[in-house]
Structures are given as structure tokens and as C-alpha cells.
Specification:
Number of domains: 1
Strand content: under 5%
Order of helices and strands: HHHHEEEHHHHHHHHH
Number of helices: 13
Structural class: mainly alpha
Distance between the termini: 22 Å
Helix content: 55-70%
Number of strands: 3
Strand order of the largest sheet: 1-2-3
């Protein structure tokens, strides 16, 4: 049998089909949230999926161990792009996160997170016999530069994602639990300092609105309250994909970000509790498949990359859905493959490609 055909037949087919279900569901969710508007968001999302699919297939069929020589160049390129944002970036919604490339724009912070997962996984797998403190310090050096550059954009949401991702990789890499506990305690101690001195006023307002969504119902608490109303008004089965006079259509959900940050609120309003639970279930199964791939990987590199991707997916899903139901503060994190967003769609599909590659090559010689 031809090696390429063997790889194709060896795909993790349940995850493969779930990937396409989520991608198609994302186009549908964006269309459902914006069908009454002139902007062709759902068509643009189809275009980005079409651009991303070849990358998904190439990464799936290549042996993921090319990361051993490719991770560092990818990491340095992502840092260079983050630096470029400081000089040629485009500002939107109060943040300077994008670089315009003619008809499209890219968000380097999304690439940086993937580069961070690859580079930290390579470092911890390559130097697994080093003392834990040296492995922690080395990882800290790798993570500090991109996180600081992302925080300066400012992009608090993406910066937060790095925390659970790196902690998950540390756990699987065998860093002693006492070190992880100390790290968690240091973060908890630092949170009040950051909230009071490290955040911009609008970011601090989001924290206040999360703690008390009635403190300013016509101001900082408006978005979260309208999101809760929209989700609640969907009932069990929802109002239907083209229902009129919805919270979304009437403009109570923020029109500038309803198709990305608040996509779950719009989806739950039109598809109800049943639709919301179905979507969450699909994500839960996807993350479980990612963990299965991590467990079956036969080397540390594959195991750590799969763990980092699973943690990234979980954090995005938890934070995005959580902020629409007032479980987490509003952070502006997209819902993987469901929210509108070109760069993030590309990065997520590349991540799914890595999962497939780790699965396909799990019995290959290292």
C-alpha cells in the first residue's frame, strides 16, 4: 500500500468528521447571526475555511516530528510579527492586534500561541532530564516575550489562554505538583495587582460588570445582561434561524462582535437550550479526542503538543461560552470554528492537523 494512502486511511476519522461538522456549523451560526445585515461574514468565513483546509491536510499527513527543527523558526517569526504589530498594526475596537495584508488581515497573537505550544513542547521534551526549576525558567523565558507583546496590544483574553495551556503542558511533562501549586498561588496573588494597576479602564470595567452585572445596566453591564436575556429568551428549542424581532436583530447584542465574541448568545437565542447543549457536547467530544491522542502518543513531543492543543480548545470554549452566561468576565475570546475570524480559523485547523499527524504517526519510529 502506498504510504500516502496508508496515512489517509489512518486518519482519526471521528475527529476528522467532527472538525468538518464544527467548521460547517460555524458558517451556519455566523449566517444565522448576520443574515439580516449587508456584511458577507459567512461568505468570508467559507473563504477562510477554504484557505485553511490545505494547511490542515498538509500538517495532518506530515510527520509532526518536523517540529524538532521547525519550532524555533516558527517561534521567532511569530515574535517578529508581534513586534511588527507595534509599528504597522491596525487598531480595531480599542486594540492594535491586526496586520493588514491587502484584502485580508492577520492576527499574529493567534499564531504566537500555536508557536508557543510547539516550542515549549519541544523544549520540555528535549530537556526532560533537567532539574524542574531549570525547565520552569527556560519555559518562562520562552513564554515571557510573546505574552508581554500580546498584553501590550492590549489582548488580555489571548494572554490569559497561555496560562492553562502552559500549566497543562507542565503537568504532563512531569513537573512536580508542588512547583505547579506555587505557580498557581503566585498567579492568584498577582491578579488583584494586575486588576488595579495593569489593566486599561475598559478592561477593569469588564471585571466589575462580571462581579456585579447590575452595577451599571445601561453601561458596562449592558452586553452581559443582553446576552443573558437573549440566551434565556431562546427557551428550549429556540426562535428559529431566521426569526425576526430577536435580541440580536433588534441590536441589543453588540452588532460589531455578535458574530465572534457573542456568537454563542446569538446561536442559543435562535436554537435554544437544545442547540446550545448540542454545540457544547460536540466540543466536549472533540476535546476528549484530543486527550485520547495525547494518551496514545508514543513520544513526549507528540504528547505535549496534543495536551497543549486540548488545553487551548478547552480554554477558548470555556471562556467564550462562560462570558455569555456570566460565568467568566468578557475577554473577547472567539469560539473555535464557530466564531467569525480568519486567523483563528486557520490556526485551529492547523491544530487539528497536528492532532491528526500525532495520531497517524503514533507507531512510527522516533
Amino acid at each position: 500500500m502506498h504510504p500516502l494512502l496508508r496515512k489517509i486511511l489512518g486518519l482519526h476519522w471521528p475527529l476528522f468528521f467532527l472538525t468538518f461538522i464544527l467548521a460547517i456549523g460555524g458558517v451556519y451560526a455566523i449566517y444565522s447571526a448576520t443574515w439580516f445585515r449587508n456584511e458577507p461574514y459567512w461568505k468570508n468565513q467559507i473563504l477562510w475555511i477554504a484557505i485553511s483546509l490545505p494547511c490542515f491536510l498538509i500538517v495532518s499527513l506530515m510527520d509532526y516530528r518536523w517540529v524538532r527543527w521547525g519550532a524555533i523558526p516558527i517561534y521567532l517569526t511569530s515574535v517578529a510579527l508581534l513586534v511588527a504589530v507595534r509599528f504597522v498594526g491596525t487598531e480595531r475596537y480599542g486594540s492594535e492586534r491586526w496586520i493588514d495584508l491587502g484584502p485580508i488581515s492577520i492576527q499574529p497573537s493567534q499564531f504566537a500561541l500555536l508557536a508557543g505550544i510547539l516550542t515549549v513542547s519541544l523544549f520540555l521534551s528535549r530537556f526532560r532530564n533537567w532539574p524542574p526549576i531549570l525547565r520552569l525558567l527556560g519555559t518562562g523565558i520562552l513564554v515571557a516575550t510573546p505574552c508581554l507583546l500580546i498584553l501590550l496590544q492590549p489582548d488580555l483574553g489571548t494572554t490569559i489562554v497561555w496560562g492553562p495551556v502552559i500549566l497543562s503542558i507542565f503537568f504532563v511533562a512531569g513537573i512536580p505538583k508542588r512547583y505547579l501549586l506555587v505557580l498557581i498561588l503566585l498567579v492568584l496573588i498577582a491578579i488583584p495587582v494586575m486588576v488595579n494597576f495593569g489593566l486599561k479602564p475598559y478592561q477593569r470595567d469588564r471585571i466589575i460588570a462580571f462581579l456585579d452585572n447590575q452595577i451599571d445596566p445601561l453601561g458596562v453591564s449592558w452586553n452581559i445582561n443582553q446576552s443573558l436575556i437573549a440566551i434565556g429568551s431562546g427557551g428550549f428549542l429556540g426562535k428559529g434561524p431566521k426569526a425576526t424581532n430577536t435580541q440580536n436583530q433588534l441590536g441589543f447584542l453588540p452588532s460589531t462582535i455578535v458574530h465572534n465574541d457573542f456568537i454563542f448568545a446569538a446561536f442559543a437565542e435562535t436554537h435554544g437550550f437544545l442547540g446550545g447543549v448540542t454545540l457544547i457536547t460536540l466540543f466536549a467530544i472533540t476535546i476528549l479526542f484530543a486527550l485520547q491522542i495525547a494518551l496514545t502518543a508514543e513520544d513526549d513531543l507528540g504528547r505535549l503538543i496534543a495536551t497543549g492543543i486540548a488545553a487551548m480548545l478547552f480554554t477558548h470554549v470555556f471562556m467564550n461560552i462562560g462570558m455569555t452566561i456570566s460565568v467568566t468576565p468578557i475577554t473577547g475570546l472567539p469560539l473555535p470554528l464557530i466564531s467569525y475570524g480568519g486567523t483563528f480559523t486557520l490556526v485551529v485547523l492547523i491544530c487539528f492537523g497536528f492532532l491528526q499527524s500525532i495520531w497517524i504517526h503514533r507507531h512510527a519510529a522516533g
